[in-house]
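Shipment paperwork, digital attachment
Item: protein structure file
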Amino acid sequence: MSNRFKPELKIGDRIVCLEMEGEPKYFGARGTVEGINKGPGFIQYDVNWDDGGSLFLLDDDSWVLEKDYKKKPKINEETNVNELATNSKILKYFKILKIKKYLDLLSETSIVNMFGASQYLYIGGDILKKEHYDYEGDDFDELAELAENSRNIMIRGAMKMLEDEGKEITTESVGKVLRVYAPKILTFWMTHY
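Attachment content:
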């Protein structure tokens, strides 16, 4: 996929947006190129987004052709042994379906770019409310509750992992596991859901 990243587009191309600056809800959005505007030092693509959005795709944005977009592999299709080992630990120690519900809602609210959302798995509801005190969505109370649940799942999972590995359970060791596994869990969610 890396050699097909941000290809030059032509009218009629189907694309998948990977990143649009300041518009996290466009991550994964699909659309059809309907027009191309070229100027000195810039290209702007007029895209008919499948969800009805109306934003242009700019040079600073990231995209791939829909046909090149990586399909989500099934767990048993993975060939990387380290990835399988990591995924088995994620499934063993963390209640991934409950975390999925939280990440799904977090993604829908667009309060954070999901590529940088790993720490949101363990910040809890109180910090979430403090960080995003100005958010006005009706679903924010549910999001804060799910953030608290996710935090508890992450901490319990980290403690159980340390216990099973015969390691000392301290604030520092739990924090280290959280910092290592939160990005892996986020990647798991992005890859498999």
